[in-house]
Structures are given as C-alpha cells and as structure tokens.
C-alpha cells in the first residue's frame, strides 16, 4: 500500500507556487527554507514527478506542477469557502471568476488593492479556463474572454486583445538587439516561446505571423519552447529565454516596470477582449458592485497613464 502524502505537504506546495520562492514561502508559513525544500522533495518523491524546474535562484512550475497546483488551489479554495459559516465577524463574501492568465497577470494585484480599501469584504477568486465554470451564475462577477456579448452576463470591456512579441531587456541586450528596430523576419529567427491553444479563438505565433499587415512568407518558424499555459510562456520571457507573444493589456504591469519590452512594430488586434461581467437576471449585491466599480476605475486610471 502506498504511504499517504501528508496534507501539510500540499499546503507548503501551494505557498511555494504562489510565492515562486522557497524562502518567501517559508516566511509565510513560519518554517525554514530547508523545511520547504524537504517537503517539496518529499512530495515529488511520492508522486514520482518533478514539480519545479530550478534554474539557479529562479523557479518555474513543470507541466506536472502546474496541473497539481490548479487542483490544490481549487481544493484549498473550496475548504476556505466551506469554513465561512463557522466564522464570526461581519465580513461579506463575494466571488469572481477569471481565467488563469488574467488572474495571475492582471487581477491579483487589483484584488489586493481592493482588500486594503475594503477590509470588511472578502473576495473568493475562482481561477479556471473552463468556459462553463467561468460563466456559471453562481459567481457574483466574471471576467470573460469574449467579443462583448453573452446571454447571461452584462459585459463591460476591460481591455482589447492586442498581441505583440515581447522579451526581457536582458535577452535583447545579450544579442545586441534593439527591440523596436526588429522586423518580422528577424523576430522569426529568434527563440520563440509559444503556448498550447485550448480555445479555438486563441492566437499563437503561427496565427500571428499570418495576421500581421505583411504576413511572413515561406515556412512558418517552429517555437523553441512551447508551454501548456500562457502564464508559463510569459514567465519564460521574463527569465530571458526568448520571445513570447504578449497581450498588451494583460502584461501592462510588466511593461510599465521594464521587466518586459515590446519587440518590433507589428501588432494584431484580434477582435476579442477581456470583459467584466455582472449577472443579467439578478441584482448585484452592494459589495459586488463595489468591486465592479473598483476594477473599472483601476483600468481607467491606468489607461490614462499609458
């Protein structure tokens, strides 16, 4: 009989995934970095698969680690929600659903800011790429990848999808390149980082090279790296591993900080975008309406900065 995996190992794994740093995970849990490493190693041994790719001081989830993290996070969120009836206080709970990419790259910081402004409102974030879960009417708010129409949700545009190649400044500097001076053919010869298309409307490099004003001629380049999620592709670009395809609205924080820069001048506007949704057939609670306004105001302020 297989030895049972200690539940504590999953709690440590969850913290390590969210922090992407064993030291910070240890500080969050009040244990040492060595203890975090031991628990992660024990979990990998139990499962027979590596969960993190270690590159010096940098961490990245392997495909197995990404799948496990999604399941562990969903389970912990479920347990957290189940405990709400047993807690005292006057905190109001609202739920919002969003895909993994916008949750990780855009929404997380804005929910943290909202929490500081409204400490008596608790927010449950459901992160999923399953359309039926995203659009479930059990949610108070949703962020949908859409053209702007949905039968059950009133949608307000947060950001249009505009796709452009992106890279870290270090990647370009090491090759003596200037990002805005690169043409399409030069970009195609670099280390392309792609991701799997789980939605027929998503666009990877193959489709992007065919939609730019002057489509690439000849055989389309094969990506050097391909990841199971868009987030992992962006993280690889941040680590300086090559050129990824960036959705400008999603990565505005990374562009503003200089961690990423755009490459070339070609852009593709897909006709899709990310929309903030409110229920069409029921009233919005005051707390959910407050979060709705916060997210729209945050987007308007930052649009004015650009």
Indicate the mean pLDDT: 87
Structural class: alpha/beta
Helix content: 40-55%
Number of domains: 2
Shape: globular
What Rg, in angstroms, do the CA atoms define?
A: 21 Å
CATH topology of the largest domain: D-Maltodextrin-Binding Protein, domain 2
Largest sheet entry: 7 strands, mixed
* Alpha-carbon distance between the two ends: 59 Å
Portion of residues in beta strands equals 15-25%
Order of helices and strands: HHHEEHEHEHEEHHEHEHEHEEH
- Give the C-level CATH assignment of the largest domain: Alpha Beta
Beta-strand segment tally: 11
How many helices? The count is 12
The CATH architecture classification of the largest domain is 3-Layer(aba) Sandwich
List low-confidence stretches.
Answer: 301-306
InterPro entries: LysR-type_TF_proteobact-type, LysR_HTH_N, LysR_subst-bd, WH-like_DNA-bd_sf, WH_DNA-bd_sf
GO molecular function, one term: sequence-specific DNA binding
Keywords: DNA-binding, Transcription, Transcription regulation
Function: Transcriptional regulator of the ttuABCDE tartrate utilization operon.
């Amino acid at each position: 009989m297989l030895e049972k995996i200690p539940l504590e190992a999953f709690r440590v794994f969850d913290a390590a995934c969210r922090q992407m740093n064993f030291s910070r995970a240890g500080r969050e849990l009040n244990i040492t970095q060595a203890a975090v490493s031991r628990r992660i190693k024990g979990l990998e041994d139990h499962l027979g698969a590596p969960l993190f790719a270690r590159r010096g001081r940098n961490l990245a989830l392997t495909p197995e680690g990404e799948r496990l993290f999604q399941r562990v996070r969903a389970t912990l969120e479920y347990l957290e929600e189940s405990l709400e009836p047993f807690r005292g206080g006057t905190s109001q709970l609202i739920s919002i659903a969003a895909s993994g990419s916008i949750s990780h790259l855009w929404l997380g910081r804005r929910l943290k800011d909202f929490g500081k402004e409204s400490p008596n409102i608790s927010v449950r974030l459901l992160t999923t790429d399953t359309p039926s879960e995203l659009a479930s009417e059990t949610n108070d708010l949703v962020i949908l990848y859409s053209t702007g129409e949905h039968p059950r949700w009133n949608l307000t545009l947060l950001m249009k999808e505009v796709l452009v190649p992106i890279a870290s400044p270090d990647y370009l500097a090491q090759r003596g390149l200037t990002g805005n001076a690169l043409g399409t053919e030069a970009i195609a010869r670099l280390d392309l980082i792609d991701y799997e298309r789980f939605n027929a409307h998503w666009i990877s490099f193959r489709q992007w090279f065919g939609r730019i004003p002057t489509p690439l001629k000849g055989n389309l380049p094969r990506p050097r790296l391909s990841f199971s999620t868009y987030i992992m592709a962006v993280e690889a670009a941040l680590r300086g591993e090559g050129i990824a395809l960036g959705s400008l609205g999603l990565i505005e924080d990374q562009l503003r900080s200089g961690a990423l820069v755009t490459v070339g001048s070609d852009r593709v506007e897909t006709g899709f975008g990310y929309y903030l949704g409110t229920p069409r057939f029921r009233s919005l609670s005051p707390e959910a309406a407050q979060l709705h306004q916060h997210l729209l105001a945050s987007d308007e302020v930052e649009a004015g900065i650009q």
